[in-house]
């Protein structure tokens, strides 16, 4: 018996080089599949457990297990698990007394990246209250719209965002909304101080009975996304989805001994779900940054012994554009998790900063399908495997880009895209992979559902993204369709921008789209417009309109004036040709304008300005 075992072991060792040559990713595939199965079993256990166990309970267990371990590091201050637990108890008790919050009441957090964001969210979770995470860049109508989506009756903000809240305060007061600010006092009528109430509250633990009816299907968060259609929408994030997203770190092999650097906004699913919730699931230390800084990034990583960082395509490019240093590779970062990086930047990042494992992701906050590139393959956003597809069915279907609709056969069913062909990614809606949708927006929910895809009566989630599966089972992101493009790491809803543009007195119609700029990630905003009869383009008024109502990343930097807008046969605005033509004044006969922040106006786009953009003398 021993002899046969020795022979088999020897054959296995001899065949290993052959297997590795024929199947170079088998070890990575096997490791990832085994991790995924273990995490899947845990999720099933949580779903079937009579006593619901949430990410909050995971945090509480960590606080009991190692109360003195550092949980958050922020601007020179350290906060242990035990400390954050006690602070969140005080928050919960203060809000329970002041706002009369009860289980299920939604509360909007309009806060910057700071530790108070974390313990306020935890405190609300202890009361069984879902949090609506508002983008702190939004203002005016967008702020009111996003706030109202969640149905919240309470909003919590910080002194640095007080001016933005005061802009909409009359409307909030009319609607009976309670506004709290993290300060010891506030003289503005309609805004109540909260810090003084928190400091006086008890830090004793709260009863689980306060959240007794919360279960894995309950709403945990509202995270805002423009998806691929319309204005920002509140994606409903259940506790089940929080768990699934928090497992991404574990699936990548990250452990409790790692130190995680969050420099992305906590109102995003990347920063909050993958970063913060993932860190809680692992029981690790988080270094929280108020905002991304390319010049401080590596110094922070060295100072705090960071081992895992987050990124978006823009942040990697910014890091590569910093002046080279002798100590570029002197750090302990072993892994970077994120999405949206170009192949050339990816390669440059590795060459300059060392052999860091880049874990490029593909996912959507409201979606039911996602991928992780758990290998070293540059450029891919994921990898196909049978276990993933078994539990989360998906397919790529042929898509008509010009008419922005799936291609269907004579039976009315969609046609699967061939290997190597670009197609629209759709995820089958099942009990295991549901599409929860957006709060109070059934119209948009239905737009994201595709019926009769592979057979009559089935239903799939429309990601709105074009992907490609190659013959080695790698997944590549190709483009985004519909009414959204991505710039500065944010989704921009073209219909929302167009609505704001047409409020300018001179503009009749607006067709908004994103165009590529060499050396930049994503697409920058551009609008083709027509003018009202007898009107000329009012540069200052249009500038004021977009600056007053749109965050910086959503403001169209280029405007093209046309005699009429081209429509499809179903009266949809055509964008394909406009996107291809871009904004080169040497190639376009229409009048072009450029948003100049220094002059606080739109100015004619000259070839000189275009050259300055290309050479990066003008920063976008």
TrEMBL record:
Source superkingdom: Eukaryota
Domain AMP-binding enzyme C-terminal: 501-572
GO annotations of cellular component type: endoplasmic reticulum membrane; plasma membrane
EC number: 6.2.1.3
Major subcellular site: membrane
Subcellular localization: Cell membrane
A GO biological process held by the record: long-chain fatty acid import into cell
Domain AMP-dependent synthetase/ligase: 61-383
Record's catalysed reaction(s): a long-chain fatty acid + ATP + CoA = a long-chain fatty acyl-CoA + AMP + diphosphate; a very long-chain fatty acid + ATP + CoA = a very long-chain fatty acyl-CoA + AMP + diphosphate; tetracosanoate + ATP + CoA = tetracosanoyl-CoA + AMP + diphosphate
Keywords for this protein: Cell membrane, Fatty acid metabolism, Ligase, Lipid metabolism, Lipid transport, Membrane, Nucleotide-binding, Transmembrane, Transmembrane helix, Transport
Family matches, as Pfam families: AMP-binding, AMP-binding_C
Membrane topology label: Multi-pass membrane protein
Family per similarity comment: Belongs to the ATP-dependent AMP-binding enzyme family.
Protein name listed in UniProt: long-chain-fatty-acid--CoA ligase
Organism this protein belongs to: Pleuronectes platessa (European plaice)
């Amino acid at each position: 018996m021993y002899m046969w075992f020795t022979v088999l072991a020897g054959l296995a060792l001899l065949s290993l080089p052959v297997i590795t040559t024929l199947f170079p990713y088998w070890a990575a595939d096997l490791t990832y599949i085994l991790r995924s199965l273990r995490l899947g079993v845990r999720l099933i256990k949580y779903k079937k457990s009579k006593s619901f166990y949430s990410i909050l309970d995971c945090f509480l267990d960590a606080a009991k297990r190692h109360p003195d371990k550092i949980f958050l590091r922020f601007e020179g201050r350290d906060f242990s698990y035990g400390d954050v637990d006690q602070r969140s108890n005080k928050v919960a008790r203060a809000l329970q007394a002041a706002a009369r919050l009860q289980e299920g009441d939604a509360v909007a957090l309009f806060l910057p990246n700071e530790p108070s964001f974390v313990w306020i969210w935890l405190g609300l979770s202890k009361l069984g209250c879902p949090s609506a995470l508002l983008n702190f860049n939004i203002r005016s109508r967008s702020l009111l719209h996003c706030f109202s989506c969640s149905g919240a009756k309470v909003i919590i903000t910080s002194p640095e965002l007080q001016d933005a809240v005061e802009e909409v305060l009359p409307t909030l007061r009319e609607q009976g909304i309670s506004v709290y600010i993290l300060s010891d006092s506030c003289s503005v009528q309609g805004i109540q101080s909260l810090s003084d109430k928190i400091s006086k509250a008890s830090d004793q633990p709260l009863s689980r009975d306060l959240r007794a009816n919360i279960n894995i299907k309950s709403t945990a968060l509202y995270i805002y996304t423009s998806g691929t259609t319309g204005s920002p929408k509140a994606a409903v994030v259940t506790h089940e989805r929080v768990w699934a997203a928090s497992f991404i770190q574990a699936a990548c092999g990250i452990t409790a001994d790692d130190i995680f650097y969050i420099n992305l906004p906590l109102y995003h699913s990347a920063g909050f779900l993958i970063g913060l919730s993932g860190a809680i699931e692992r029981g690790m230390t988080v270094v929280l940054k108020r905002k991304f800084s390319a010049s401080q990034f590596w110094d922070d990583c060295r100072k705090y012994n960071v081992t895992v960082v987050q990124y978006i395509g823009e942040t990697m490019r910014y890091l590569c554009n910093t002046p080279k240093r002798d100590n570029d590779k002197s750090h302990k970062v072993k892994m970077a998790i994120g999405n949206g990086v170009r192949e050339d930047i990816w390669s440059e990042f590795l060459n300059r900063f060392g052999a860091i494992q880049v874990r490029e992701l593909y996912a959507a906050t409201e979606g039911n399908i996602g991928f992780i590139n758990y290998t070293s393959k540059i450029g891919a956003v994921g990898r196909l495997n049978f276990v993933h597809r078994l539990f989360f069915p998906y397919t790529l279907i042929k898509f008509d880009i010009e008419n922005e609709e799936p291609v269907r056969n004579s039976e009315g069913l969609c046609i699967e895209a061939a290997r190597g062909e670009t197609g629209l990614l759709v995820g089958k809606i099942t009990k295991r992979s549901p599409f929860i949708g957006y709060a109070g927006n059934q119209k948009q929910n239905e737009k994201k559902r595709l019926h009769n895809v592979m057979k009559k009566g089935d239903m799939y989630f429309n990601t709105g993204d074009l992907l490609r599966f190659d013959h080695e089972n790698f997944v590549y992101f190709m483009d985004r369709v519909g009414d959204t493009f991505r710039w500065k790491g944010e989704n921009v809803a073209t219909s929302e921008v167009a609505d704001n543009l047409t409020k300018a007195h001179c503009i009749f119609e607006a067709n908004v789209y994103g165009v590529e700029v060499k050396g930049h990630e994503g697409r920058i905003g551009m609008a083709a417009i027509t003018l009202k009869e007898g009107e000329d383009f009012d540069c200052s008024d249009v500038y004021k309109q977009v600056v007053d109502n749109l965050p910086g990343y959503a403001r169209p930097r280029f405007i093209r004036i046309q005699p009429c807008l081209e429509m499809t046969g179903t009266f949809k605005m055509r964008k394909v040709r406009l996107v291809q033509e871009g904004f080169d004044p040497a190639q376009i006969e229409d009048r072009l304008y450029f948003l100049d922040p220094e002059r606080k106006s739109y100015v004619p786009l000259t070839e000189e300005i275009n050259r300055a953009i290309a050479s990066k003398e003008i920063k976008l």
